[in-house]
Task: inverse folding
């Protein structure tokens, strides 16, 4: 009776025959991947640019052209000047940084710095309470309310505070705030009004960064004997610092550009650059200084560009840590 020979694997037979292959080894099989064609890659990139084209056009028309017009007008004489206007001059820009205009610019900077700092300090624990809440309805309610309040301003906001905290407001009369020196129509009163929409804006801005903190980081800190204070001081705050600074800069820009609320509530009693621009545009300037408002606008654009120059790198750094 004959038996069929047992098949021997190729690696084993190679080892038995004294070949260079090692028994049990597997010869790797490589497959050549198809590289994307350059033409297709360029086509995809062009389609991406086409998709972003409406946004780019909106940016150019809504911001680029007005900014260029403001820059040109800031360095030329107005039409009511003795020479007929259109002549190059630096008097507009020089005048915008002197006297009452400089006081207004510095007043806007101080107001923006103060309100942005307070809103950052107050908004961080509120956002932490929202991020760590186990109640979904509470979280959604706070985030929805923050989104509404962050965009609530202008005359309605001014009227609301005048009716409640004004000299004849309901809260002012019931608590007798006037006897303690309270006045809504001052620098401090305007700061309180600005916090009404800056604190919710900070909550919206910093909540995603708080959600990006890894649970493992907290557990590792506690396992190594760290307290909650030490965890926030040495782990959480250093990671959140770029996001906090970015939120602070964003709040500064929002406060610096606000106009309607201050105009409706305090008028010119609190010197602000936005109020000076409004007065200049309404013709409340000397003859030949019609383009002074454009120079004041250029000052605000420069400050806004500086704010964005600080904000964008901070956002990229925070995204790197919390991605």
Result:
């Amino acid at each position: 009776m004959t038996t069929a020979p047992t098949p021997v694997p190729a690696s084993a037979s190679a080892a038995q025959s004294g070949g260079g292959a090692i028994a049990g080894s597997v010869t790797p099989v490589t497959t050549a991947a198809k590289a994307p064609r350059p033409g297709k890659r360029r086509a995809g990139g062009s389609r991406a640019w086409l998709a972003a084209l409406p946004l780019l056009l909106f940016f150019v028309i809504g911001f680029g052209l007005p900014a260029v017009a403001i820059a040109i007008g800031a360095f030329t004489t107005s039409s009511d000047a003795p020479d007929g206007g259109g002549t190059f001059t630096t008097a507009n820009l020089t005048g915008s940084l002197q006297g009452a205009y400089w006081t207004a610019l510095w007043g806007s900077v101080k107001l923006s710095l103060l309100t942005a700092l307070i809103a950052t300090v107050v908004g961080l624990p509120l956002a932490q309470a929202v991020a760590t809440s186990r109640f979904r309805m509470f979280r959604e309610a706070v985030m929805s309310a923050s989104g509404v309040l962050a965009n609530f301003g202008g005359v309605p906001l001014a009227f609301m505070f005048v009716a409640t905290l004004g000299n004849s407001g309901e809260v002012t009369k019931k608590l007798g705030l006037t006897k303690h020196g309270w006045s809504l129509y001052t620098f401090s009163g305007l700061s309180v009004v600005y916090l009404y929409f800056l604190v919710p804006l900070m909550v919206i801005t910093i909540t995603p960064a708080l959600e990006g903190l890894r649970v493992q980081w907290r557990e590792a800190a506690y396992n190594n004997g760290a307290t909650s204070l030490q965890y926030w001081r040495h782990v959480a705050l250093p990671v959140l610092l770029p996001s906090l600074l970015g939120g602070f800069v964003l709040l500064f820009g929002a406060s610096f550009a606000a106009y309607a609320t201050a105009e409706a509530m305090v008028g010119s009693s609190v010197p602000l650059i936005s109020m000076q621009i409004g007065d200049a545009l309404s013709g409340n300037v000397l003859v030949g200084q019609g383009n002074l408002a454009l120079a004041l606008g250029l000052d605000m654009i420069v400050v806004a560009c500086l704010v964005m120059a600080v904000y964008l790198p901070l956002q990229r750094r925070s995204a790197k840590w919390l991605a």
